[in-house]
Amino acid sequence: MKKNKIGHYIANIIITVAGVLMLFPILWMFLATFKTNEEIFGSLKLLPNSFDFSGYIEGWKGTAGITYSTYFINTFLIVIPVVIFTVASCSLVAYGFARFKFPGKKPLFMLLISTLMLPNAVIMIPRYALFNSFGWVNTYMPFYAPAVLGTYPFFVFMLVQFMRGLPKELDESAYIDGCGSFQAFVQILIPLMKPALFSAGLFQFIWTYNDYLNPLLYINSAKKYTISLALKLSIDAESVIPWNKVMAMAFVSNIPLIILFFSAQKYFVEGIATQGLKG
């Protein structure tokens, strides 16, 4: 028993130290928002000489008269629909592969999974040419359309694996009660898939929220910029970069991700670790 307690304490200490080390960059970034450039680059002190909130006030004003309120709104105008469309479309595709038999099912699934190996650089130019021919450049359609059409094989594969762990007897009992395939999917399977759906939504939220390359490709108007582009714009707009403003806005931009992760942590862990129903 004593050995178990000692091992437990040691494990807790190691986890605590690892957690502090992982959180240190965020702590440093937060404290840097109160420092001047001279303090950031000329001193090793963690704490600032004074807590000056001008970095947040001036940083929020943005550049060229466009505030970070606009950038946050633009970001969520992309992220929220993309997450909803992705979860809805990928779960439907996964339902088809996991529950139905149809000609060419295995080759189609292999083809879908093989697209995971395609580097983004290979499809970047043809995808841009396609969206440009549709007149979608400088709109948010290049983000919405792939999400609506379920073109994210990673999420399809993850949901298929989760759904295969759910007993097919649940579907059969729903059919006996008079439900159709879609009703059984919505009323029976969707409630059981919450952990996997939350995990897919959380992944997509983080990836879309942090995406820099795709907004850079498809958006050419500063009024439609997302947060990732705004942070880069704030660096390019001035010859002498006030790093306290950049750090302040970078810290503020991370707050939604931190809140989302900790509020959905339970479902996120279950979705990754669970492959079916618990007994």
Automatic annotation (TrEMBL):
The chain crosses the membrane at residues 9-31, 71-97, 109-131, 143-163, 184-207, 246-264. GO terms for biological process: transmembrane transport. Coiled coil: none annotated. It is a multi-pass membrane protein. One of its GO terms (cellular component) is plasma membrane. It comes from the Bacteria. It is found in: Cell membrane. The keyword Transferase does not apply. Residues 72-264 form the ABC transmembrane type-1 domain. SUPFAM superfamilies: MetI-like (SSF161098). Its main location: membrane. InterPro entries: MetI-like, MetI-like_sf. Keywords: Cell membrane, Membrane, Transmembrane, Transmembrane helix, Transport. PANTHER family: ABC TRANSPORTER PERMEASE PROTEIN MG189-RELATED-RELATED, ABC TRANSPORTER PERMEASE PROTEIN YESQ-RELATED. Belongs to the binding-protein-dependent transport system permease family. This is Carbohydrate ABC transporter membrane protein 2, CUT1 family. It comes from Butyrivibrio proteoclasticus.
